[in-house]
From TrEMBL:
Protein's recorded name: N-acetylmuramoyl-L-alanine amidase
Coiled coil segments of this chain: none
GO biological process, any: peptidoglycan catabolic process
Reactions catalysed, as given in the entry: Hydrolyzes the link between N-acetylmuramoyl residues and L-amino acid residues in certain cell-wall glycopeptides
Enzyme class: hydrolase
Source organism of this protein record: Winogradskyella pacifica
Keyword annotations from UniProtKB, A to Z: Hydrolase, Signal
Gene Ontology MF, one: N-acetylmuramoyl-L-alanine amidase activity
SUPFAM superfamilies in the cross-refs: Zn-dependent exopeptidases
InterPro entries membership: MurNAc-LAA_cat, N-acetylmuramoyl_amidase_3
Protein backbone atom coordinates (compact mmCIF):
# COMPACT_ATOMS: atom_id res chain seq x y z
CA UNK A 1 0.00 0.00 0.00
CA UNK A 2 1.18 3.50 -0.76
CA UNK A 3 1.36 6.02 2.04
CA UNK A 4 -0.36 9.40 1.67
CA UNK A 5 3.03 11.10 1.24
CA UNK A 6 4.00 8.70 -1.53
CA UNK A 7 0.73 9.30 -3.35
CA UNK A 8 1.12 13.06 -3.05
CA UNK A 9 4.70 12.84 -4.34
CA UNK A 10 3.59 10.76 -7.32
CA UNK A 11 0.82 13.23 -8.17
CA UNK A 12 3.27 16.13 -7.84
CA UNK A 13 5.71 14.43 -10.22
CA UNK A 14 2.97 13.82 -12.77
CA UNK A 15 1.93 17.47 -12.49
CA UNK A 16 5.43 18.77 -13.23
CA UNK A 17 6.00 16.22 -16.01
CA UNK A 18 2.79 17.42 -17.66
CA UNK A 19 3.87 21.07 -17.34
CA UNK A 20 7.28 20.22 -18.78
CA UNK A 21 5.74 18.30 -21.70
CA UNK A 22 3.31 21.13 -22.44
CA UNK A 23 6.12 23.69 -22.31
CA UNK A 24 8.24 21.58 -24.67
CA UNK A 25 5.33 21.45 -27.11
CA UNK A 26 4.97 25.24 -26.95
CA UNK A 27 8.72 25.70 -27.45
CA UNK A 28 8.58 23.42 -30.49
CA UNK A 29 5.69 25.39 -31.97
CA UNK A 30 7.73 28.61 -31.78
CA UNK A 31 10.59 27.19 -33.83
CA UNK A 32 10.76 28.03 -37.56
CA UNK A 33 9.60 25.23 -39.83
CA UNK A 34 11.97 24.30 -42.65
CA UNK A 35 11.02 21.78 -45.33
CA UNK A 36 13.95 20.21 -47.15
CA UNK A 37 13.13 18.59 -50.48
CA UNK A 38 15.83 16.09 -51.56
CA UNK A 39 15.27 15.98 -55.31
CA UNK A 40 14.26 12.93 -57.36
CA UNK A 41 14.30 9.48 -55.68
CA UNK A 42 13.16 5.94 -56.42
CA UNK A 43 13.06 5.19 -60.14
CA UNK A 44 14.18 8.76 -60.88
CA UNK A 45 17.92 8.99 -60.13
CA UNK A 46 18.31 12.57 -61.32
CA UNK A 47 21.73 13.46 -62.69
CA UNK A 48 24.27 10.64 -62.89
CA UNK A 49 27.99 10.25 -63.51
CA UNK A 50 29.50 7.65 -65.82
CA UNK A 51 30.49 5.71 -62.70
CA UNK A 52 26.89 5.57 -61.49
CA UNK A 53 26.96 8.27 -58.79
CA UNK A 54 23.34 9.39 -58.48
CA UNK A 55 21.99 12.81 -57.61
CA UNK A 56 19.12 11.31 -55.58
CA UNK A 57 21.58 9.62 -53.18
CA UNK A 58 23.81 12.67 -52.68
CA UNK A 59 20.99 15.08 -51.87
CA UNK A 60 19.28 12.66 -49.48
CA UNK A 61 22.57 12.07 -47.66
CA UNK A 62 23.12 15.82 -47.24
CA UNK A 63 19.55 16.35 -45.99
CA UNK A 64 19.95 13.52 -43.46
CA UNK A 65 23.13 15.07 -42.14
CA UNK A 66 21.33 18.38 -41.66
CA UNK A 67 18.94 16.75 -39.18
CA UNK A 68 21.81 15.30 -37.15
CA UNK A 69 23.67 18.62 -37.07
CA UNK A 70 20.51 20.56 -36.19
CA UNK A 71 19.96 18.31 -33.17
CA UNK A 72 23.54 17.87 -31.97
CA UNK A 73 25.58 20.90 -32.99
CA UNK A 74 22.99 23.68 -32.94
CA UNK A 75 20.76 22.48 -30.09
CA UNK A 76 17.74 21.97 -32.33
CA UNK A 77 16.77 25.56 -33.30
CA UNK A 78 14.75 24.47 -36.34
CA UNK A 79 11.88 22.10 -37.00
CA UNK A 80 13.16 20.20 -40.02
CA UNK A 81 10.92 18.11 -42.26
CA UNK A 82 11.76 16.21 -45.45
CA UNK A 83 9.62 15.56 -48.50
CA UNK A 84 11.23 12.10 -48.58
CA UNK A 85 13.22 10.21 -45.95
CA UNK A 86 14.11 7.19 -48.07
CA UNK A 87 14.88 6.32 -51.69
CA UNK A 88 11.36 6.79 -52.95
CA UNK A 89 9.80 8.99 -55.63
CA UNK A 90 7.39 11.62 -54.33
CA UNK A 91 5.08 13.51 -56.70
CA UNK A 92 6.02 17.17 -57.13
CA UNK A 93 2.59 18.33 -56.00
CA UNK A 94 2.96 16.33 -52.77
CA UNK A 95 6.31 17.97 -52.03
CA UNK A 96 4.77 21.43 -52.03
CA UNK A 97 1.62 20.15 -50.32
CA UNK A 98 3.72 19.11 -47.34
CA UNK A 99 5.17 22.60 -47.01
CA UNK A 100 1.71 24.14 -47.31
CA UNK A 101 0.22 21.78 -44.73
CA UNK A 102 3.02 22.52 -42.27
CA UNK A 103 2.91 26.26 -43.10
CA UNK A 104 6.65 26.12 -43.58
CA UNK A 105 8.68 29.29 -43.24
CA UNK A 106 11.33 27.99 -45.65
CA UNK A 107 11.27 25.51 -48.52
CA UNK A 108 14.57 24.32 -50.03
CA UNK A 109 14.69 21.84 -52.89
CA UNK A 110 18.21 20.37 -53.08
CA UNK A 111 19.66 19.07 -56.35
CA UNK A 112 22.86 18.36 -58.27
CA UNK A 113 23.35 19.72 -61.77
CA UNK A 114 24.39 18.22 -65.08
CA UNK A 115 25.46 19.74 -68.40
CA UNK A 116 26.73 18.76 -71.83
CA UNK A 117 29.64 21.12 -71.19
CA UNK A 118 31.76 19.04 -68.81
CA UNK A 119 33.65 22.14 -67.61
CA UNK A 120 30.50 23.77 -66.20
CA UNK A 121 30.84 24.00 -62.41
CA UNK A 122 29.47 25.74 -59.35
CA UNK A 123 26.27 26.27 -57.41
CA UNK A 124 23.10 27.76 -58.84
CA UNK A 125 20.05 29.13 -57.05
CA UNK A 126 16.60 29.35 -58.61
CA UNK A 127 13.65 31.32 -57.31
CA UNK A 128 10.10 31.84 -58.55
CA UNK A 129 8.89 35.18 -57.18
CA UNK A 130 5.20 35.07 -56.27
CA UNK A 131 5.36 38.42 -54.51
CA UNK A 132 7.90 41.15 -53.90
CA UNK A 133 8.35 40.02 -50.30
CA UNK A 134 8.87 36.37 -51.22
CA UNK A 135 11.25 37.28 -54.03
CA UNK A 136 13.33 39.38 -51.65
CA UNK A 137 13.38 36.72 -48.93
CA UNK A 138 14.13 33.89 -51.37
CA UNK A 139 16.92 35.86 -53.00
CA UNK A 140 18.51 36.64 -49.65
CA UNK A 141 18.27 33.03 -48.50
CA UNK A 142 19.70 31.67 -51.75
CA UNK A 143 22.57 34.14 -51.90
CA UNK A 144 23.38 33.57 -48.22
CA UNK A 145 23.72 29.82 -48.82
CA UNK A 146 25.70 30.36 -52.04
CA UNK A 147 28.07 32.81 -50.38
CA UNK A 148 28.61 30.46 -47.44
CA UNK A 149 29.44 27.56 -49.75
CA UNK A 150 31.87 29.80 -51.65
CA UNK A 151 33.55 31.44 -48.65
CA UNK A 152 33.82 28.38 -46.40
CA UNK A 153 34.13 25.51 -48.88
CA UNK A 154 35.48 27.28 -51.95
CA UNK A 155 32.64 26.13 -54.22
CA UNK A 156 32.26 28.35 -57.27
CA UNK A 157 29.15 30.52 -57.50
CA UNK A 158 26.98 30.85 -60.57
CA UNK A 159 24.23 33.39 -61.05
CA UNK A 160 20.86 33.43 -59.33
CA UNK A 161 18.10 32.56 -61.80
CA UNK A 162 14.33 32.61 -62.11
CA UNK A 163 13.07 29.05 -62.49
CA UNK A 164 9.55 27.99 -63.43
CA UNK A 165 9.76 24.79 -61.39
CA UNK A 166 6.57 23.29 -59.97
CA UNK A 167 7.99 22.96 -56.46
CA UNK A 168 8.70 26.71 -56.48
CA UNK A 169 5.67 27.79 -58.46
CA UNK A 170 3.29 26.11 -56.03
CA UNK A 171 5.16 27.05 -52.87
CA UNK A 172 3.71 29.64 -50.53
CA UNK A 173 6.56 29.61 -48.00
CA UNK A 174 8.09 32.92 -46.98
CA UNK A 175 11.27 31.89 -48.77
CA UNK A 176 11.51 29.12 -51.38
CA UNK A 177 14.55 28.17 -53.43
CA UNK A 178 15.86 25.37 -55.61
CA UNK A 179 19.55 24.85 -54.90
CA UNK A 180 21.87 23.15 -57.40
CA UNK A 181 24.93 22.12 -55.40
CA UNK A 182 27.28 21.43 -58.30
CA UNK A 183 27.66 19.53 -61.56
CA UNK A 184 27.95 15.75 -61.61
CA UNK A 185 29.09 16.13 -65.21
CA UNK A 186 32.22 17.91 -63.92
CA UNK A 187 34.69 15.31 -62.65
CA UNK A 188 36.10 17.21 -59.67
CA UNK A 189 32.70 18.35 -58.42
CA UNK A 190 31.25 14.84 -58.78
CA UNK A 191 34.07 13.38 -56.70
CA UNK A 192 33.72 16.14 -54.10
CA UNK A 193 29.94 15.85 -53.77
CA UNK A 194 30.14 12.09 -53.34
CA UNK A 195 32.51 12.27 -50.34
CA UNK A 196 30.92 11.92 -46.92
CA UNK A 197 33.09 14.65 -45.38
CA UNK A 198 32.03 17.01 -48.18
CA UNK A 199 28.38 16.21 -47.56
CA UNK A 200 28.88 16.93 -43.84
CA UNK A 201 30.45 20.28 -44.68
CA UNK A 202 27.72 21.25 -47.16
CA UNK A 203 24.98 20.28 -44.70
CA UNK A 204 26.66 22.41 -42.04
CA UNK A 205 26.95 25.47 -44.28
CA UNK A 206 23.32 25.22 -45.40
CA UNK A 207 22.17 25.00 -41.78
CA UNK A 208 24.35 27.94 -40.74
CA UNK A 209 22.98 29.96 -43.64
CA UNK A 210 19.37 29.18 -42.70
CA UNK A 211 20.01 30.19 -39.11
CA UNK A 212 21.68 33.41 -40.29
CA UNK A 213 18.76 34.14 -42.63
CA UNK A 214 16.28 33.68 -39.78
CA UNK A 215 18.36 35.82 -37.42
CA UNK A 216 18.51 33.12 -34.76
Amino acid sequence: MYTLNQMLLALLCLFFINISFTQNEKDQEKKPIVVIDPGHGGKDPGAMTLKGIKEKDIVLAIASKMVVLNDTLFDNPLRLFFTRYTDTLIALRDRTLLAKTLKADIFISIHCNQAINTTAAGTEVFIYPKSEAQASASTYLGLTIQQGLADILGIKKRELKYGNFQVLRESDSKAAILLELGFLSQTDEAIYLNKEESQDAIALVILQSIIKFLGL
